[in-house]
Amino acid sequence: MPTISFSHKDLEKMVGRKLPIDKLEKSLEFCKAEIDKVEGDDITISVGDTNQPYLWSVEGVARLLRGVLGIEKGIAKLNIKKADKKIFVDKSVEKIRSYLSAFIARGKKVDDYLLKQMIQLQEKVCEGYGRRRQKVSIGIYSYKKIKFPLYYKAVDPESIEFVPLDFKREMTQAEILETHPKGKEYAWILKDCKKFPIFVDDTGEVLSFPPIINSQKTGKVEIGEEDLLVETTGTDLNAVNLATNIFAYALADRGFTIEALEINYGKNKITTPKMFNEKIKIKTADVDKLLGLKLNDKQITDLLKKARFDFNKGIISVPEYRQDILHWVDVVEDIGIMYDYEKIESSPLTSFTVGNTSEMQRFIDALRELCTGLGYQEVFSTLLTNKEILYNKMNVADLGTIEIKNVMSENYSVLRTWIVPTLMEVLSTNKHIEYPQKIFEQGIVVSRKKEDVIQHEKLALVSAHADANFTEARQVLEAIFKAIGVTGVFENHSHDSFIPGRVAKVLVNGKEVAFVGEMHPKVLSDFGIDVPVVGFELDVDELFRLRK
Q1: Is 85 helix (H, G, I), strand (E, B) or coil?
Q2: Which of 419, 454, 443 minimizes the C-alpha distance to 537?
Q3: Contacts from 31-39 at CB under 8 Å and sequence distance 24+?
Q4: Radius of gyration, CA atoms only, the chain
Q5: What is the pLDDT of residues 141-182, one digit of tens each?
Q6: Which terminus of the chain is more exposed, N or C, with fewer CB under 10 A?
């Protein structure tokens, strides 16, 4: 749960209204936030929504509260000027850290408090939403020290030297990863890269080594600065653009003028901050059905405008600093929040039943306890994923994927058809953690068979360490079978995700219930994993039926 600190007086100034602590406490409920600590004028709050990183700043909270309190209505407009300046992104970063977004902010003097607020937002977005800088990282620079155009490229780790932030001597990128505190903390992000990203200006002056550290010369913002360059790099284009928009809105709320930059990828050119112009349809009947309220169009419009949406003839316009609206249900949730859930009357009981856990759920819980008892840690991931993880990296063909029609992010564009790829992705993002790593997950998978959509309960398990082998995975599976009273027969099998000769299908009473094997070197390479990985995936539905 992200926490942010700010001045009470500053929040009141940005909202445009006095907010005594008791009223502030109630108002923060509309932001899914609560007060943690009050020390004089300093307030610390916890924000309960991790899907809306714009709220991880006093500027974002104030923007929403202006809507909640009726001071402003509808989408907050971001006035953007064209700077007529360019940043060139070289193809060399394509498989390292592909995307960059940036803008110029002018005309507001930076004082000590504002600098701390900018750094707080930068750190919260990079560490939380940016997955510890791997997915997104943000750099802030002194504009007056930079000569356009700028260049983002990948170079040999020993080829460039510059003075990193808070140091006094020049260092190569390789040396920064070995000796600089930030370099050692985030070196894992570039562990498998032969070349490293670098961001330079037209004179060759280094601005930063993304996502590790800024340069001391251009990347240290001083008190009294009036013009800034803000840059975001990352591995997901939507995420990079969203982080840039969040920062642009925050600085615009502070009085800065925002100037857009052209990002030149060669054949493709985009202007950032980039407006998503996201629209979503909603029906009054859907709102009534979900909330149990009888709201007319005017009431719905007023509530949406309080939440800082625009609404016209059933079409909702989503703010450019939000990418969490995946379905009309997400919008109805905001309508309910603005209506105030405490004002919604409880419905009377219409039936009286005794609750109990289903036999299937007890069976699933028993399997989970067995895996935990065997030394494996349970993980929980989303049902949504992407084909790159499910098939390309796993070296297999499509298993009958259900795709999202109006996809908001390529990372979450399909329903998973099996769980092992998700566990491989978890291993891939935790290479900085010591081995052995032993994890499992139980959950639903969904696939298409001609016109039918089939849902299954599955359980998958992987083990990653230097001595991992087929026998280890087979023994775990046999231990589970023994505990639940069934006998598995292991037969030779062909599966392109696993090493030939080290993979088997598993039968119980003549029915296939699982496959088990040692991961193929190509799969390990695609996920950037340097140690052997073994595992299995078990059809819980089939096993439950056979056991009965």
Answers
A1: strand
A2: 419
A3: 31/55, 31/61, 31/64, 31/65, 32/337, 33/61, 36/3, 38/8
A4: 26
A5: 999 999 999 999 999 999 999 999 989 999 999 999 999 999
A6: C
- Which CATH architecture does the domain made up of 3-68 adopt? 2-Layer Sandwich (3.30)
- What is the share, in percent, of the chain residues with pLDDT greater than 90? 85
CA separation for the pair 248, 250 (Å, rounded) = 5
The third-level CATH classification (topology) of the domain covering 80-272 is Phenylalanyl-tRNA Synthetase; Chain B, domain 3 (3.50.40)
CB neighbour class for 495 (10 Å; exposed up to 12, middle 13-18, buried from 19): middle
Angle between helices 470-484 and 359-373 (to 10 degrees): 140
Query: Residue 453, SS3?
Result: strand
CATH architecture of residue range(s) 359-547: 2-Layer Sandwich (3.30)
Nearest to 414 by CA among 445, 440, 441: 445
Q: Does domain 279-341 have CATH number 3.30.56.10?
A: yes
Q: 291-324: per-residue pLDDT in tens?
A: 988 899 899 999 999 999 999 988 999 999 999 9
Same fold, 80-272 and 359-547: no
Q: Where are the domains of the chain?
A: 3-68, 80-272, 279-341, 359-547
